[in-house]
Amino acid sequence: MKKTEAPKKKPTRSKSSAKPKPRSAVKPIGKQTKTAIDPRVIELQASADRALASGDPDRALDLYSQALAYDQLPYEIELSLRESRARCHDYMGNLAACLSDLEALHRRARRQRDVRRQAYALRLLADAASAIDA
Q: What would the mean pLDDT of 36-59 be, rounded to a whole number?
């Protein structure tokens, strides 16, 4: 009877010898930069959200516009403010201003190469444009 050879074991690395990548070697996804948020912007947005929830779109519109006037807003904050301000314009029947804010939202998402938000902005633009035709 012929003896079979035992399969050769491949050398394995011990877990302690596996070195994690240094942080500088990890590539960030997208162009995410951390920007310090002025606390007044957050306060204005919260006040505007409360005003809109209580049925005062005029006041909310003013507060959203004040918040958008700040320079170098972080991407997420800017999109949220623009979308909310567009909603205020829509509630007040000012569809041209609503479309303008939604177009700005789409342009910002396109510059950021955020495909999901671009599609979302286009859907909102289509909804607002269909309201004009109706």
A: 93
